[in-house]
Amino acid sequence: MLGGLSEDRTPALSPERSSLAVGVRNLTVVLGDQLNLDASAFDGFDPACDAVWMAEVDEEATHVRSGKQRIALFLSAMRHFADALRAAGVLVHYQRIDHPGNQGSLAAQLRAAILALRPASVVLTFPGDWRVLQAIRTTVEQAGLALELREDRSFFSTPGEFSAHAKGRKSLRLEYYYRELRQKHRILMREGEPEGGQWNFDHDNRESFGPKGPGALPARVAFAPDALTREVIALVGQRFASHPGSLADFDWPVTRREALLSLDRFVAERLALFGRYEDAMWPGEPWLYHSQLSAALNLKLLSAQEVVRAAERAFHEGLAPIESVEGFIRQILGWREYVRGIYWMRMPGYLALNALGADQELPAWYWTGNTDMACLRDAITQTLRHGYAHHIQRLMVTGLYALLLGVHPQQVHAWYLAVYVDAVEWVELPNTLGMSQFADGGLMASKPYVATGKYIQRMGGNCTGCRYNPALRTGASACPFTTLYWDFLLRHEKALSQNARMALQLRNLGRLSPAEREAVIQRAAALRRAP
Fold first, then answer.
1. Does the pTM of the predicted model rise above 0.70?
2. Region of residue 508 (left: phi > 0; alpha: psi -120 to 50; beta: else)
3. Parallel, antiparallel, or unpaired: how do β-strands 26-29 and 121-125 relate?
4. Domains of the chain
5. Nearest alpha-carbon partner for 450 in 411, 501, 415
6. Beta bridge partners of residue 149, listed in sequence order
7. How much of the chain exceeds pLDDT 90, in percent?
8. C-alpha closest to that of 244 among 59, 422, 58, 67
9. pLDDT tens sequence across 29-79
10. Within a 13 Å sphere around the CA of 141, how many CA atoms are in the beta-carbon half?
């Protein structure tokens, strides 16, 4: 890694070489989601003969129509990281997106850099996007060079380890991989047994706020944009003016120090109640008890190991109960590692999966929030304003509606990848196609996550002010979620009958009379015709 790293991962290096130096030994490629100074790409880095290459390109903001908050976060964090490298004496070849010579794609920019710098080899930490890896690999090979691809140490496991875990198994399930990693890395373990006497505290972590709402919440840690970030905000606002979202409230952590402060504040102020309310929602309250650390984790401003250890330490110090700490750690040590393993094991074919044959267009109001369904309006408006929604809003509001409506899963994937600041394809794609849309037919999740509007009513307060009634499945006042839930079961009854976990829901479906079934089908058809 880069010299001797201090606790804040600042490298100790010799003064920067002249930017005119050529004949680079190793050209170390740093992507926008690899902003950690102790990344494997820096192992053996010698500032006397090696250099870093970074590039901002339009392609990464336009291959899906990325939201303004997401673009600004990546660009600001990249520029801050490049400045940190330069301050530490590292030669950084950095191409800004608005530079007159920028050719608009990573491949083109890397090709030009290789021609100009004549490196002996190119070094890269394993990226988070199959498309990007292929582009870099092809470019380096065409230049006649070797690409040294190194594992990403900011995760607990590697794609190869997950493939070994999956080999020979008839089905893949998060719980088994999660337990395996808990044991291997001794996380929340005591004398070979899980802390608290059980592996999973999901049953204790499904409370709602009740009719009075969450009450007083901790103030969110926010970061006023500095001069560099303000420059990026102005650039994004002008260059990507037609892209979704707003930059007015941009305040995400864009440096290592800011990310560490976010982690400290979460552990001190929110972790204790995270588990109890992790599935709860409330209108107008985007943050609740969630960590808001996923963007910093996915940019590698934080590592999974230090976040998990901080939560575990809070448990041992009596600052947070086991059900909250285990629930939080499972999101990182469990889901995050699990979905990454599935992504790299199944790409590129995973991207095209559509097991349910969904073919509807994504409603246009997903890009504006202009809908009369209160829960969707709240979640989407919040998303466009902040680039953020917590996992239940994504899975059981925006994702659930798309699943029930029958939206083509690749359109849902493009929307999620575009609008959320923490969206990197390795984590977003399996969560969307697999868990949310069941487009992989059950590879990742054991059942479709489907529910009526009653679930949303139980977990949040949106229904109180909504014109629709979640208890009704037909008629003009029926909640569209409820209508489409029953329609979903009708459309996929035969396929779902093979899934034991859907047995109770299908038995309830069997109680509908022919007339009730026809009324559901007609009402669902009308919802699909609506703009």
1. yes
2. alpha
3. parallel
4. 1-153+223-252 (3.40.50.620), 159-218+270-346 (1.25.40.80), 364-529 (1.10.579.10)
5. 501
6. 124
7. 94
8. 67
9. 999 999 999 999 999 999 999 999 999 999 999 999 999 999 999 999 999
10. 7
